[in-house]
Design brief:
The chain is an alpha/beta fold. It is about 50% helix and about 10% strand. A 6-stranded mixed sheet has the order 1-2-3-4-6-5. Helix 6 crosses helix 8. The chain is globular and about 65 Å long.
Length: about 300
């Protein structure tokens, strides 16, 4: 295998601990995030600087990452993007909000007689996977409890919104950026079914710019969006294959072995796709967390 070290355009380095998403890149910009917040809540805030971003960038351990966390007035909002259905999001959000509250009261005493006030939490997931999902789905922590009797003493509710093109039309009309994001994702998936992933993403970006879809964002971040889109799409299919392997392995005695095989096959395909898309070997090492010898074994 020829180890190419150059491509036609500069590809930014991906954080091997936290794979960014186009959604997170797009809505990390305060103006876009405020527009999304207003659309979801029905509010009409105008000052984006009123948003205080509190996303925990160092909470990656145990998978406790969250795409966007912010405070506005006396509330704290946890927004997450998902391309695969995950019923464990309420439990993940419970752990995550615990870390947020720990930081919030870090310099305050919880042993005084005065009640310590904390921000009211709101949890939301923006889903754009390919599985059929209703426009609005409520996920509850109590669904994970074994042998629950009566009302749970501890509950956490997460609202999951389907943001695929054609869903939640009223919400999309209220947030033009979200609507255009859904169009972009649909274009990538459409072209990826007929073209190699690199060409599919390039075509989707070029068309969207020509048609006035996410123009400023795509022009400003074209190279990074291209890389992240390729990694996102591969990760989505990797997780689907892993779930299939888990299901099939669950019917056999060799459950753990079957799961590991599915994970390895998904990783191998992801590496092959990146090679075919022209990624230099050092970028593949950085994006996958694998060593050069491990990548050569996959190939």
């Amino acid at each position: 295998m020829k180890k190419s070290t150059q491509v036609s355009e500069k590809i930014p380095t991906a954080n091997r601990q936290y794979k960014d998403t186009v959604f997170r890149m797009l809505f990390s910009e305060k103006e876009n995030l405020l527009s999304l917040y207003n659309a979801v809540t029905g509010n009409h805030y105008q000052n984006a600087e009123a948003l205080k971003i509190v996303t925990l960038e160092n909470a990656i351990y145990m998978g406790m990452k969250n795409d966007l966390a912010f405070m506005l007035e006396t509330n704290i909002y946890l927004y997450e993007h998902q391309s695969t259905i995950n019923p464990n999001i309420p439990l993940r959000d419970l752990i995550y909000i615990g870390i947020e509250y720990q930081q919030f009261v870090n310099d305050k005493s919880l042993y005084l007689s005065k009640l310590q006030k904390i921000p009211t939490p709101k949890f939301m997931v923006f889903y754009n996977g390919t599985d059929a999902v209703d426009d609005r789905v409520e996920l509850r922590l109590s669904e994970a409890y074994e042998h629950l009797a009566g009302e749970p003493d501890l509950e956490l509710k997460v609202l999951m919104l389907n943001v695929n093109e054609g869903h939640n039309k009223d919400l999309m009309e209220q947030c033009q950026t979200l609507k255009e994001y859904a169009i972009y994702v649909a274009r990538v998936r459409k072209y990826a079914s007929a073209l190699n992933l690199n060409d599919a993403v390039e075509r989707a970006i070029t068309e969207c710019i020509k048609e006035g879809i996410l123009v400023d964002f795509l022009r400003k971040n074209r190279s990074e969006v291209k890389m992240v889109s390729i990694l996102e799409y591969d990760k989505e299919w990797e997780e689907k294959k892993l779930r299939k392997a888990e299901y099939e392995a669950g019917k056999e005695e060799g459950k753990n072995e079957g799961i590991e095989i599915g994970r390895e096959e998904a990783m191998a395909e992801m590496i092959h796709n990146m090679i075919k898309s022209g990624f230099p070997i050092e970028k593949i090492i950085d994006a996958t967390g694998k060593t050069l010898s491990e990548i050569e074994q996959y190939l």
